[in-house]
Queue: 2 jobs
Job 1
Amino acid sequence: MPEIANPRFLVLPEDTSTTVLTEGDGANAPAATSPASTATLAAGASPAPDRADLRPENIQDAVIRLAGNSQDGIQTAGAFLARLAGRSEHDVMTYMTIPATISGGPSIFQVRIGSGEVLSAGDEADFLVAFYQHSYQDHIGFLREGGVLLYDSDNVEPNLDDKRFVYVGVPITGLTIEALGGTAKDKGKNIFVLGLISKIFNLDAEKLKKLITEKFAGKNESVVNTALMAFQAGYAYPVGNVLTKHYRFEHIPRTSGRAQICVDGNQALAYGLIAAGVRYGAGYPITPWSSVMEVLRRELPKYGGIFVQAEDELASVSIALGCSYAGYLAVTGSAGPGISLKAEAIGWASMAEIPLIICNIQRGGPSTGLPTNVEQSDLHQAIFGSHGDSPRVVLAPSSVEDCFYIAIEAARIARKYSTPVFILSDTSLATRIEAFDEPDLPKLMQNPKPDLTPRETFKPYPIDQITQHVPPGTRILDGKYPLLAGLEHDEMGHPTGSPKLHMAMTAKRRNKLRKLAEELPMPEVYGDQEGDTLMVGWGSTYGPIHDAAKMARENGEKVGALHLRHLHPLPNGLEKIWPKFKRIVTVEMNDQGVYGYGQLATILRARYCEAKIQSFTKTDGLTFRVKEILDGVFRGRSFAARHIPRDGTAVVHTDTAPESVRSTREVVPQGVG
């Protein structure tokens, strides 16, 4: 069975008597141990597994996991690696977990760098950096056989009798203090390790130094100098005493001719909103939405706009509605709990037919739930979460790049149909970093100015047409100025209790979404266009689902993958796809519900009355691993499923009642997988 992380490290000792992994067919080669006092190397005596693709020097792909505490700057070091990859024309995807407590705790940052397309963060780590004993114990199961464990020998004592891995011990804490002085304590270890990794992987040290300088440019000069000293100390460490092979990512020239940018999903979303002509907004801080606020609050004044931090969620959506009423399409946002508090005002936007963008950066729920973990459990809230029949549009980006473009799509729909539009992102997309081609901004930038062109006559709510909001101040030549209200109204906006008008207006608000469905593009089916199984997903599961489809097809399965970007309304024509497959399985990060179906599956079954639609769901707060998807979708059905290693992965049953769930080992939170 092929593995996702294709390249495998070849690690050879310089002088060691310990048996180690060698190149080629996995034969073992003895050598003599180096007497280096500051590093320890031990490697497995078992032969390299057949699945390993061991290459000296040049590699195409690597998964690097940093494991420590959130206070150690794990995310900062990982982000430097990711952004360097973007500036070096490599593809990159990251994955991180942070504790939900203010005091901090165990944390990881995983970065996958590749010379080709990278769709998922990787099922296994090729290179694990463990800062503490708990980091080693919790994450060693994620390291592939033959992988490299780089550990802080001042804090970690690995089990060297476990012959599956290559062990590289470096006194990271002591060397950092030695480089920076006694007052450094444990600060700067992250940058020291960054320098060490840079040396091992032949990364561009000058570019990394520039990134470090840019990162800390707003701080005291001593902070920049200290960071550069830590980096240089790590880079200068004689790692050749431990690893005689350094690695270099192969450079594959990109054909687009455009520069790459490297940002996380929340940054991409914020800049997409700016490109879409959004100049005003309001919000209230909540994880993981807050960083969208921070970018907009910093950037909008540069474009003549403003972003307001309101006193609460209801105030923030009301301020945004006021901006949209004035003719400037505005944005508000939150996570699930905050969206609940905004529900009344969003219902007003539906009734008054005011354009508005609402960002929901989903996290684990309900209530305060898992504030730093990922879930896709707000789909029903976005579509149905209102009093009365309150139509709204719901979109979901599939990648960090798509976070940028989905904002432009949301603005287009909101303006054209005078309706609230939800953007459903999630914690995974919000925090992970990807590299993609720089958008062609001159072609994409929208004019945010309201249209104040005088009208001869104007009905704000024509029964037989789509409402087009006209901002106040627009001159109406016949002198009959309209009203806007949350009360049911006639065509001029005057309140009415007429049963006949209420029915007509309800149908009018509903039918504009049907009109939108007619213009939405049909999503493409990846892989087999007909066959045994069609996997359907939405949001951040795009990469793992497509990698799973690829692996299944390589093992003889007739599999396709379909990813939905427009969730409400659904694009017309999906009903033509279902008959081409024997099974349709939605892959979702939410609960199977009382009736055994995930939230998207429930909607699809209700819409199409298709009994073939099934669900594979989970609610562990972690992103999907590719093998996990294959195991859940194909369990007991196929060659692919029977050959998936299950060590350390949860066994997910159709019935997930507590007494029915078994696991091959304890499931540990915070992304240990």
Job 2
Amino acid sequence: MAGRWTVVMAIATASFSALGTTAEITTLDALALSDAIDVLERELAAIDLACSRFRDDSEVSRLARADGAWVQSSRLLRQALAAGVAAALETGGAVDPTVGATMRGLGWDADFRIVVSRSEPARIERVPAAGWRRIEIDDVRGRVRVPPGVEIDLGATARAFAADRAARAAFRATGSAVLVNLGGDIAVAGPAPAGGWPILVTDDHRGTPSDADGQVVGVAAGGLATSSTTVRRWRTTDGIAHHVVDPRTGRSAAETWRTVSVAAQSCLAANTASTAAIVLGEQAPTWLRARGISARLVRPDECVVVTGAWPAQQELGRAA
């Protein structure tokens, strides 16, 4: 789950609920907003039908029921799965698209609003990831296969993948520069305003634009993403769990970092790196620097570490 982001300047903006979060789209041309909204709604409906593990009619759910057989699949699902596999390859498995059973074992087995509303803590079962190398994608025949018992969860990549797709599609459809924000996974397309899209990066997801601490950064291209251990949390019989899992252990990742924010050439790349950093813990700054990734890592005590070209951290509080 991404942290809270706020677009400081907006020419025309609309928001609505989608994919279990808030979807927001901003255009530089106010007249383009209506068409951009239509594009975003179509993109999100398509990604939900392909990738949701909470819909019985989704392609991911059909894949889980296939008992190891090949399943005919849409091009969108194959692309989303390929993105998940690429993220696993890039991160050495720290981001793994086969953690569906892991998430279910931790108690996240339904829409998150249902999970947190339960009166009893979730009884958990340790289920390490099944292994991303076992996913088979056949683009020639338009099909996908996973071994029996493997459950796909693209939560670490699909929303960022959707943000990138939607931003590009909205720009093509309207000709206006566009910013898409899916619960903090941000993608931009088209010529940005002077100085880039100004975005307030905050660590406290409960804050509001007027009172949140953080740092304003300008985004001219690509994307931004934050992974956090503070937002999607629920009670279990083993204590509090959060949604960023360590595929190796089948448990929520150690809370070395409260949030990790990354700027990259795409929202998908940013989300992949930010999620991996949470899982990697103390190794994260070294891993990010070795790849030239610009990131802002915040510890639970609010100590901030930056890597790459991320702007130098000012004192926590409103950064200019």
